[in-house]
């Protein structure tokens, strides 16, 4: 019985191979008649039509927000298993962010912050490096949020200022760090 099934399986494979070869040959041998190029006929260009564009919502101005530095932790300590980048230390900046009067929700994200060091260079936040990291939030007018943002700073560089530029803002807010 096993030899019979092997024989039938072999014949099936040979039949499939022959069928694939015949199919390929038919496709390759089929001739497509060449298409003669058509002479270009002068046609009138269609006139552009006006498209109605919806009014864009007003972009929030930086004056609608406030950013306060409430504390600086140099170095920042954490209970989490965290290893800073070699030859750096983690500096935690505690901030309070206020949406005083923006017409739309203020979207706050720790990645919207950057730190300016005394060397004049900007530094990106290091997520998860501080225990009380600021949360991602949408703040309505009159709402606020408080939290820390951690930054890896090289030895000898101190925190000079912190910047916030949220989604859709026309400019950034910069606050000096005491």
Characteristics of this structure?
3-stranded antiparallel beta sheet, 4-stranded antiparallel beta sheet, 16% helix, single chain, Immunoglobulin-like, 178 residues, 31% strand, alpha+beta
How would you portray this structure in words?
There is one protein chain. By secondary structure, the protein is an alpha+beta fold. It has a domain at 62-166: Immunoglobulin-like. The chain is built from 1 helix and 9 strands. It has one helix at residues 2-29; strands spanning 65-73, 88-99, 106-108, 113-117, 122-123, 137-139, 144-154, 159-164, 173-176. The strands form 3 sheets. The chain has a 4-stranded antiparallel beta sheet, with no helix packed on it. The chain has a 3-stranded antiparallel beta sheet with strand order 1-2-7, with no helix packed on it. It starts with a helix and ends with a strand.
User: What coarse outline follows from CA principal-axis ratios?
Assistant: elongated
Arithmetic mean of pLDDT: 76
Judged by helices, strands and strand pairing, the structural class is alpha+beta
CATH topology of the domain at 62-166: Immunoglobulin-like
**Which ranges are low-confidence, i.e. pLDDT below 50, for 5 or more consecutive residues?**
50-59
Count of alpha/pi helices: 1
Q: Give the proportion of residues in helices.
A: 10-25%
User: Can you name the CATH architecture of the domain at 62-166?
Assistant: Sandwich
Q: Major beta sheet, specifics? A: 4 strands, antiparallel
Biggest sheet strand order reads 5-4-8-9
N→C terminal distance: 89 Å
Radius of gyration of CA atoms, rounded to a whole number: 33 Å
Q: SSE order in H/E notation?
A: HEEEEEEEEE
Beta strands, count: 9
CATH class of the domain at 62-166: Mainly Beta
Question: Roughly what fraction of the amino acids lie in strands?
Answer: 25-35%
